[in-house]
Amino acid sequence: MSGRHLVVVGGGMVAHRLVEALRSRDTDAAWRITVLAEEPRMPYDRVALTSYFSGRDPADLSLGDPTLWDDPSVSLRKGVTVAAVDTAAKTVRTTRDEIIGYDELVLATGSYAFVPPIKNSDAEGCFVYRTIDDVAALRVYVERLRAEGKDVNGVVVGGGLLGLEAAGALRALGAGTTVVEFAPRLMALQVDEGGGSALARLIRGLDIEVLTSTQTTRVKTTSQGAARAMAVADGKDLPADVVVFATGVRPRDELGRAAGLEIGERGGVVVDEGCRTSVDGVWAIGEVACIESRVWGLIAPGYAMAEIVADRLLGGSATFPGADTSTKLKLLGVDVASFGDAFGATEGALDIVYADPVAGVYKKLVLSDDARTLLGGILVGDASAYSGLRPMVGRQLGADPASYLLPEGSAPAQLELPDDAPVCSCNNVSAGTIRCAVREEGCGDLKSVCGKTRAGTSCGSCLPIVKNLLNAELAAAGVEVSKALCEHFAMSRAELFDVVRVTGLRTFSSLVERHGTGRGCDICKPVVASILASLDPAGHVLDGERATLQDTNDHVMANIQKDGTYSVVPRIPGGEVTPEGLIAIGEVARDFGLYTKITGGQRVDLFGARIEQLPAIWKRLVEAGFESGHAYGKALRTVKSCVGSTWCRYGVQDSVGMAIALELRYRGLRSPHKIKLGVSGCARECAEARGKDVGVIATENGWNLYVGGNGGMTPRHAQLLASDLSDEQLLQAIDRFLMYYVRTGDRLQRTAVWINEIEGGLDHVRDVVLNDSLGIAADLDAAMAAHVDSYVDEWQATLQDPEKLARFVSFVNAPDQPDADLRYVVERNQPRPATPAERGQLEPVLLAGPRLEVRR
User: Where would I find the Nitrite/sulphite reductase 4Fe-4S domain in this sequence (predicted)?
Assistant: First the structure.
């Protein structure tokens, strides 16, 4: 094959970026590329390693377009380790004694996990957290211990990024977890003392113990040589069946050292601003490179180095632009971000701090001495402002800086970014590049913009701001930003809702015939089903055509689980239940062999029901006074409450009674997304009402009403809508708020996002709800009254309809035959689905009746 030969030693994320960049620019195929990858797989996303524990296959982590490796100019050799480099002969020698010549060589060997020099750190049960093989070995070991009936305790040594990732992995595997950090706070390189304190509080709230300023001394072992405890310098031994060392990384510079390349004082192959080493023809990029007297352990600088080398190999003169150390990630469900001069090292720097310990939020902005120019910041618990603030580092904010730290919805409008402001640090994409892609390259949607510019294709944290830039540019060009629900309806969900309300159309077929095209899809059909349920609440979810429109869960009024069985959640209004009710639920779970779990919304979830068992389970629960909890629908889920004034010495109102009234009032209400409510009997907020779509907190004078909160992937703090409401005023305000949301919210849009995006924001919503600014209050009141008056329990209605009951079979041609492929094991005295490894050792579970037989 013609062309000069480039050999890349290393097959990680940075090596992948180099190959991708070089091939995209080398149109004449001047270079043929050989990648020598030590791991036996294609380059993968090491940043997303922890997702391996949530069911992702290792292949799912592969980077980029796999056809890159089919390019005739590229050869990826997996499972090949380079033993030596001969810079004089321009060859590399593999551990198999194969000699490979090169014209140019790039070292992209990355780093290795550092293990502190403590006794028995190599004992059985000790792991590092660096590669897929590392995390796979950890998973297998923990699952084996648990299969043996052990309650597994894990210790993670290191409280940085990887340490908290490892803690999340252990917790996901069901192990008790303790994080031990030598520094005085978690994530010491990213957050300050205040941020570390807030982070530790949030992590402890997830049942993970955190010990800071603690030194580990040795791993204590069993007589068989397996880990059993971790000894610390001051304090009791920590139980430790598993130890994960996440104490940082060191550059894999051994090839460079042996080849005589210049090595940095603290390791790493020294390179200049063009990523060239001290020897002609050899380059180094990523975590093995020491550039600007430092080794950078972040992906963005590595990608920048890869782009530089690609440019230089094709005759360019690109230089290292400096490292963007900004970090935004979600650790154990907790948002953490830091950017710029986060610690205020700049002379004269000022700090502005917002802290809400109750909500678990800490935010700090670092400003110049005149309090105008943004230098950096730290965000813990709520990093929603990150995408707008990070590109403004080094620029004047143009507004009161403190306003950017207030809870979401209170901040000023989106900043107008200059063209040279960086938007995507992973791929070095500026705001101007995004605008150019829209204006001059014809990109009209987020997918095409990202494909053209590469923005958002790595960590994805910049996608919100990319979307804002896209929409703003389209609007400036006079192009209407499409709000089409899908290819079958050119209108938004809110517009479609109005069409159905005004025209009186009550079938999908008539609606799509008159106002859409085609036959519909899995986007528009459930939306129409939800709209019909909102406007015609007397209809059953399985009536006629509606049954064919539903998502899987609505279709069977239960939540499908990973093994194909279902979970059943009876409603327990306000979390209040009698002893007889608890006994009835327990008897159903016992008789049908179901796994039971208390949910975060004060209910009991029953897992493992086969589809043909659902009616029998419902019948027992209905007879005991329960009804569908609608855990399967985009509807009201739960109304969580504390015990309030009924029992608590601090309670000032009857929070349980109000929670029950609200849940019975709004049960079955279909909406754009799920809705959760909370009612607290005093300002101590034990029901966590401000984390709900609707939060009610008692005062001496009545009730304070908060709206727009939620947990989930993007937590939001609810905002105050009204204060000191009477019972009647509270019900009316919530009625109108929910109905206005149902009418105008977009598909799968939580109330927090809806409030933020609706024109006028919270002030507008408050005017509509409290002041009837649109003149629709009576209509909203009537709609809610119709919903309340027409409520029918879906489970009970199904039990009374033979036609609906006929749907609940595992096999159409054998309605009484259960699925014989289900296999379970016992864990903590309850059944759970067997893992793939366990399934091969178990016989199918054949049922002779409603009682589940669980095999060990």
Answer: 633-769
Q: What is the spatial distance between Cα 664 and Cα 628, in angstroms, rounded to a whole number?
A: 12
Strand, helix or coil for residue 198: helix
Distance of CA 49 to the CA centre of its chain: 13
User: Which residue's entry shows tokens 């300002």?
Assistant: 683
The secondary structure element, H or E, covering residue 675 is: strand 675-680
Closest CA to 762 of 717, 728, 730: 717
Quick one: tokens of 815?
A: 């309605």
H helix count then E strand count, the chain? 25, 39
3-state secondary structure of 538: coil
* Phi and psi torsions of 52, nearest 5°: -60, -30
Residue 829 clears pLDDT 50, i.e. is over it: yes
CA distance 277 to 275: 7
CA distance 360 to 202: 6
Residue 788 predicted with pLDDT over 80: yes
Provide the CB-side half-sphere exposure for 104 (13 A, CA).
Answer: 19
| The pLDDT value given to residue 410 | 43
C-beta of residue 656 within 8 angstroms of C-beta of residue 639: no
pLDDT at position 480 is: 67
pLDDT tens digits, residue range 330-345?
666 678 888 888 888 8
Q: Is 655 left (phi over 0), alpha (psi -120 to 50) or beta?
A: alpha
pLDDT in tens, 810-825: 654 555 566 656 777 8
Give one DSSP letter per residue of 389-411, joined into a string: HGGGTTSB-SS-GGGGGSPTTSS
The residues, ordered by sequence, that sit 6+ positions from 301 with a Cβ below 8 Å of its Cβ are: 291, 320, 323, 324
pLDDT tens by residue, 175-216: 999 999 999 999 888 888 988 888 898 888 888 999 999 999
> What is residue 352's predicted lDDT score, i.e. its pLDDT?
87
- Give the residue, 128 or 714, on which the prediction is more confident: 128
Would you state the structure tokens that stand for residue 400, as one six-digit string? 């009161």
Burial class of residue 495 in the structure, from the number of CB atoms within 10 Å of its CB (0-12 exposed, 13-18 middle, 19+ buried): middle
- The amino acid at 524: C
| pLDDT reading at 574 higher than 60 | yes
* 8 A C-beta contact, residue 305 and residue 323: no
Task: Look at residue 269 and give its three-state secondary structure.
Answer: strand
Q: How far apart are CA 648 and CA 634, in angstroms?
A: 33
Q: What pLDDT, in 10s, does the model give residues 320-379? A: 887 777 777 766 667 888 888 888 889 888 888 888 776 778 889 999 988 889 999 999
3-state percent helix, strand, coil for the chain, nearest multiple of 5: 35, 25, 45
- List of E strands, 709-813: 719-725
Residue 588, pLDDT score: 94
Q: What 3-state class would DSSP assign to 32?
A: strand
Question: How many whole angstroms separate alpha carbon 302 and alpha carbon 111?
Answer: 12
Could you tell me if 850 and 842 are in contact, meaning their C-beta atoms sit under 8 angstroms apart? no
CA angle 495, 500, 504 (to 5 degrees): 150
The C-alpha atoms of residue 308 and residue 546 are separated, in whole angstroms, by 57
Contact by Cβ (8 Å): 793, 628: yes
Percent over 90 (pLDDT), the chain: 45
**Closest Cα partner for 791 from 528, 572, 534?**
534
d(CA 573, CA 641): 9
Highest-scoring range by mean pLDDT, 257-266, 546-555, 608-617: 257-266
- Helix/strand/coil for 579: helix
pTM of the model: 0.54
φ and ψ of 232, to 5 deg: -120, 160
Q: Which two tokens stand for residue 342?
A: 């986060």
Residue identified by tokens 């830039």 is 469
Kindly report the backbone phi and psi dihedral angles of residue 666, in degrees, each rounded to the nearest multiple of 5, phi listed first: -105, 5
**663 token code pair:** 């849940």
For residues 294-324, b (16+ Cβ closer than 10 Å) or e, as one string?
ebbbbbbbbbbbbbbbbbbbbeeebebeebb
